Amino acid sequence: MSDRLTVGVLGTGIMGAAMARNLARAGHTVTAWNRTRAKAEPLAADGVLVADTAAGAVEGADLVLTMLHDGAAVLDAMGRAVPGLRPGALWMQSTTVGPEDVAALAGLAGAHGLVFFDAPVLGTRAPAEAGQLTVLAAGPAEHRAGLAPALEAVGTRTVWTGEDGASGAATRLKLVANSWVLAATNAAGEALALSHGLGVDPRHFLDLIAGGPLDMGYLHAKSALVLEDRLSPAAFAVTTAAKDARLIVEAGARHGVRLDVAAASAERFERAAAQGHGEEDMAAAYYASFEPGAEPGRSA
Q1: How far, in whole angstroms, is CA 146 from its chain's centroid?
Q2: At 2, is the secondary structure helix, strand, or coil?
Q3: What is the enclosing helix (H) or strand (E) of 33?
Q4: pTM, whole model, 2 decimals?
Q5: CB 230, CB 206: distance < 8 Å
């Protein structure tokens, strides 16, 4: 396979659009599809072709990249796309899904002779746009060279977790990592909310822990989005965070692990979405600490 790939990208949200752009900038031929075509059309300015159908986006492709909302969306899109794919084409499945979804998707790949890679990514809008994602991947070693040009275009690091994409090893690691990210996001929001409630300047809290063992760059980054009213455009949306939190809770339950913090995180994200913050950055879970109609102004 040449270093220049023909790539079909299914899903052009925050992450999928950025990955499609970086693939095109790296010299690959990229065709994208999104259920709502208007969301994909801006990619044309970056040299990405826009298809009307999922099958049209992947016709003749060496590689198909899926970055959709959830496992059901991937299964639906790929079910419609497979008529356009040749046997032996690579499938880089980067949507965050549940382990049980991976098995179903790998089964679809096997039924149509596709080479399946379980390949979720770590990162949000900024690293995605910069081509600096971390890719967690599982898939056959003999086909990794074919995937390498795409990995280099979208990320700076690939963590291989095994040779069997169907095992869901990469997805399981992604859920563990996301459990920490989502918990930290909600912890930051609650600290800011408590500051507001107690009449404490939240910057005093941030200054108090700065440089010590309790400090972390992520806390400052997410706090700034709330304090400076920069929740839009989202680096990672509340609705997507809610979906991921539920996946984490369900995965734990299937393996006899009770995840109280993850369950509370899911509830907070869902409550923030119901209050109208669904498309804002997940830091907007801050607002879930207040009753509807009693939310503080955006200067916590």
Answers
A1: 23
A2: coil
A3: strand 29-33
A4: 0.94
A5: no
CA distance 289 to 128: 30
pLDDT, tens digit, for every residue of 30-78?
Answer: 999 999 999 999 999 999 999 999 999 999 999 999 999 999 999 999 9
How many other CB atoms sit within 10 Å of the CB of residue 168? 26
Task: Decide: 157 and 135 in contact? Cβ < 8 Å.
Answer: yes
Residues 38, 102, 132, 51: what is their CA dihedral angle, to the nearest 10 degrees?
Answer: -30
Kindly state the tokens that stand for 266.
């899911």
Q: What is the domain partition of the chain in residue ranges?
A: 6-167, 172-289
Query: Which tokens sit at 23?
Result: 């693939």
Does 233 sit behind a cis peptide bond, omega within 30 degrees of 0 on the bond before it? yes
Could you give the CA distance from residue 91 to residue 155 in angstroms, rounded to a whole number? 17
Residue by residue, DSSP assigns 174-192 as: HHHHHHHHHHHHHHHHHHH
Of 167, 96, 149, give the one whose Cα is nearest residue 158. Answer: 149
CATH 2.40.50.140 fits domain 6-167: no
Does residue 2 carry a pLDDT above 80?
Answer: no
Q: What angle do CA 264, 233, 97 make, to 5 degrees?
A: 50
**Burial (CB count within 10 angstroms: exposed 0-12, middle 13-18, buried 19+), residue 295:** middle
**Class of domain 172-289 (CATH, top level):** mainly alpha
Distance CA 285, CA 64 (A): 33
Residue 101 has pLDDT above 60, yes or no: yes
Alpha helices in the chain (DSSP H): 14-25, 37-40, 54-58, 71-81, 99-111, 125-129, 144-154, 169-198, 202-209, 217-227, 238-254, 260-272
User: Alpha-carbon dihedral of residues 28, 31, 36, 39, nearest 10 degrees?
Assistant: 30
